[in-house]
Specification:
89 residues, 75% helix, 0% strand
Length: 89
């Protein structure tokens, strides 16, 4: 049961991150599922990052690597703040 609870929590948090990113949709993708891979990579970073700013740097790196984009930390700070507030607080 404990493993199942962890799995459910992981999926809930991942879907929250995915939803937040899709609402922002910096790359104009057509479906929230298109950010699923990135949400999976962002999830552990949310808990490891010491600040919103460092989370923004990580989100920027993950999205730029995944989509070969050129987002900046400044463009990602707002979304990092939203994710931080939803997940960490």
């Amino acid at each position: 049961m404990k493993g199942q609870q962890w799995s459910t929590r992981f999926n809930d948090v991942k879907e929250t991150i995915q939803s937040i990113i899709y609402k922002w949709n910096p790359l104009s993708l057509h479906a929230p599922e298109e950010y699923e891979y990135e949400a999976t990579w962002i999830l552990p970073v949310v808990y490891k990052a010491p600040s919103v700013e460092s989370l923004a740097v990580e989100i920027t790196d993950i999205l730029n690597q995944s989509f070969n984009s050129t987002l900046t930390k400044e463009e990602c700070i707002g979304i990092a703040q939203q994710i931080w507030e939803q997940i960490r607080e």
